[in-house]
Amino acid sequence: MSYTQDGHGFFTRALDAEDRGRLDEAETAYQQAIVLFEEEGDSLQEQAACHYNLGHLYLGMNRPGRAVTAYENALGLFCRIPGSGKHLARTHLILGSLLLELDRAHDAEEHLLDALGQYLDAPHEAQDQAQCHVNLGRVYELGERHTQAITAYNRALDFYQETEATATDQAECFTALGRLYERAGRMKESGAAYAAAARLRWSAEQQRLEQQSPTRDAGVPDGEDRS
């Protein structure tokens, strides 16, 4: 396939290479696209998309440090583009989640709170908002800010309940709540949270087993002798 020798051409080349699993080639093409878009001067959206996609690419290549840099570059560009609230929120969420995994809890908290600020300004996916509160709960728990952690996990549950197929995620929240209530000596609430987690895990497992069950033989009606 032939590509134009401008930013859009290299961006398309990068997407195609990424789809084929040729990640080093995709990285080089995104970087070249960024250089060309910067030369054009008015392509902020395209530059931001390149940096954002590079962040995703680096995560797949297990290069988290470079992923952080790429997402931070994307964030700086999205801030300059009107109407980019949804992109800002998603990038803050990704950075917050990534920095938490890199044991940078303070930096993670800043990004997660910035994501929440974007959620207040415009509607966003309930799943994203739930994940943001879960990660804040983890940050607060690491800092032994147990009351804030309890609030965060409960807020996550509110959003998970608006989303289908989140029984396992909800179970994790209830498990965290059970642990926090137990530490606070609130044993009745702890027991209730652990019980809710167990019910949700059982429900998720039953659903998984049902999805794996072989399809019923449509040729033999119920109650009819198969011999």
TrEMBL record:
Q: Can you cite a GO biological process for this protein?
A: protein O-linked glycosylation via mannose
Comp. bias (Polar residues): 205-215
- One GO molecular-function entry: mannosyltransferase activity
The residues forming the signal peptide are none
The source's domain of life comes to: Bacteria
Q: Enumerate the residue ranges of region (Disordered).
A: 205-227
Query: What is this protein's record name?
Result: Tetratricopeptide repeat protein
Q: What is this organism's lineage? A: Bacteria, Bacillati, Actinomycetota, Actinomycetes, Micrococcales
